[in-house]
Design goal:
By secondary structure, the protein is α+β, with helices and mostly antiparallel strands. Helix content is about 50%, strand content about 15%. It contains 10 helices and 12 strands. Strand 1 and strand 2 form a beta hairpin.
């Protein structure tokens, strides 16, 4: 794969050189990036062995600078890959600007509560976002803002968490889409169509964190298309870019009904998580003796059921020394953040 990493990096660099980053977001500029696979990393003209520093697709501080990293686990269209690198570069930009809206994922995984009413509200919002991406409608936009204000007032913790994810990941996805539009207009239109499709689907609401990539990108896209004034500065506020619009929204006149469809979706998801926990606990041989303080997990798709937390792909904890385990896991924490039960999920 080493040759592929080098070739992909050079191909990506050529595409990135054609972009005007300042048009993607005020003050945004390119950062250096690394591509890696299961064994190797290509960065700054050299290939070297991969270490645990390279985990996921994100921005990291490496050799004294903030860089974007991307794992080439499967072939990607060159324009799509380039836009995704821009997404990760935007995270480097957020770090450089002193972004204050990063969520406390350790707190969120233990406190965020999903319920049918919240799902019904978010589903209604997302359907409006999907519609507004095609055509602006003042009435629909006003109802969207009223729904958000209602959710802010009635589900403050969940709303606060989702707003932080929209500010970080939704903004990065918005920039990614904008970069793709500069690279290939047709691929951009196709990506927007997929975004609209996801927003319209009930099952795309969970995990909530993933859903916020789309809702945040859509909100920014809609506001840009309709020329709403937003606060796009980074590092001097903890409020979402469009919080002023939400604060000024009219009170919600009609609360969405929690339909049988929404209730069935919630119950099915609940049952799936319960079964996952029961399966793990019924196989004591899958329980690991490892204990320590949790220091990392895959926040992208982590879920909680009662006192148990499910994470995919990896888990990191600190005992006598930092340890990273690869795979899918189920675990419990005590009040101090120490792991009290840990199961490796077979076949996952």
């Amino acid at each position: 794969m080493n040759t592929d990493l080098k070739a992909c990096a050079e191909q990506t660099a050529n595409r990135l050189a054609s972009l005007d980053f300042s048009l993607l977001w005020p003050g945004f500029h390119p950062f250096r990036f690394a591509l890696y696979d299961h064994a190797s990393v290509y960065f700054d003209g050299e290939t070297f062995a991969r270490t645990d520093t390279f985990l996921g697709n994100t921005s990291i501080n490496f050799r004294g600078e903030q860089i974007a990293i991307w794992e080439l686990s499967e072939p990607l269209d060159p324009d799509v890959l380039s836009a995704k690198i821009v997404h990760e570069m935007f995270h480097a930009f957020q770090q450089e600007c002193g972004e204050k809206r990063f969520a406390n994922e350790f707190e969120a995984i233990q406190k965020y509560q999903t319920c049918p009413e919240l799902l019904a509200l978010r589903h209604e919002e997302n359907k409006l976002l999907s519609r507004l991406l095609s055509r602006h409608d003042a009435g629909c936009f006003g109802r969207l803002l009223s729904l958000r204000r209602y959710r802010m007032e009635h589900f403050p913790f969940e709303y606060g968490y989702e707003s932080r994810i929209e500010a970080i990941e939704g903004a990065a996805q918005f920039v990614e889409l904008s970069a793709l539009r500069m690279l290939d207009a047709l691929k951009y239109e196709q990506a927007c169509a997929r975004l609209q499709d996801r927003l319209s689907k009930l099952d795309a609401l969970l995990p909530a964190r993933i859903s916020c990539y789309d809702s945040g990108a859509a909100m920014l896209q809609i506001c840009a298309q309709s020329h709403h004034s937003l606060q796009l500065s980074i590092g001097d506020t903890e409020l979402i870019f469009y919080q002023g619009l939400i604060d000024a929204a009219k009170p919600l006149s009609l609360v969405p009904e929690t339909t049988p469809e929404v209730l069935a979706f919630y119950e099915a998801d609940h049952a799936k998580l319960r079964q996952l926990v029961e399966n793990a606990r019924s196989h004591p041989e899958s329980r690991l003796s490892a204990t320590g303080t949790l220091v990392g997990f895959n926040v992208y798709s982590a879920r909680r059921f009662e006192d148990y937390i499910y994470t995919e792909y990896f888990l990191a904890y600190q005992a006598d020394q930092p340890t990273v385990l690869n795979g899918d896991f189920l675990f419990r924490l005590d009040e101090g953040g120490s792991i009290t039960e840990l199961y490796r999920l077979a076949g996952r």
